[in-house]
Amino acid sequence: MKQLLFFACAFFALALVQSCGSSSGIKFGKEWELVELNGEQIPAGVRIMIVFDEANKRYGGTASCNNYTGTFKLDGGLLKLSNPGVTKKACPDMTWEGKYLPILTKIDAWANMDGQLKLMSMGTTVAVYK
């Protein structure tokens, strides 16, 4: 009975990880534009985007005001982003940038669903891109 339960749990865990995505689904080189952060819609006029470079294992983008870049590790549906280096420009409103940049190092998984890239932390979707 214990073996059956173990194999059932292992099967469902593997199915869950595989359903989260594959490296081909992340669409390397595409500019993904943030549309939702922690359940909040990104307002018009705020442009936050991310791009993944498969060959160099780097990510980067624009956080509304400043540019950022870092490295990533991808293993199936699991994703780990390094602490990004960020330019030091000052802009009148940096509210969304201040909300966005700290979540990047908390990302642990991703999924590509219905043409949207979803970045997750501890089972919760924290960033949605189109």
Keywords:
single chain, 130 residues, alpha+beta, Lipocalin, ten-stranded antiparallel sheet, 2 helices, globular, disordered N terminus
Give the number of DSSP strands. 10
Proportion of residues in β-strands: 35-45%
Q: Averaging pLDDT over every residue, what do you get? A: 86
N-to-C terminal Cα separation, in Å? 45 Å
Shape: globular
SSE pattern, N- to C-terminal: HEEEEEEEHEEE
CATH class designation = Mainly Beta
- What is the domain tally? 1
Q: Helicity level, as a percent range?
A: 10-25%
As a whole number of angstroms, the C-alpha radius of gyration is 16 Å
Low-confidence parts: 1-24
Report what the structure shows:
The protein is of the alpha+beta class. The chain has a single domain, classed as Lipocalin (Beta Barrel). It has two helices and ten strands. It has helices at residues 2-20, 95-100; strands at 32-37, 40-41, 48-53, 58-63, 67-75, 78-81, 85-86, 109-113, 116-121, 124-129. Strands 1, 2, 3, 4, 5, 6, 7, 8, 9 and 10 form a ten-stranded antiparallel sheet that branches. Strand 8 and strand 9 form a beta hairpin. The longest helix is centred in the N-terminal third of the chain and has 19 residues, at 2-20.
Short recap of the structure:
By secondary structure, this protein is an alpha+beta fold. Helix content is 19%, strand content 40%.
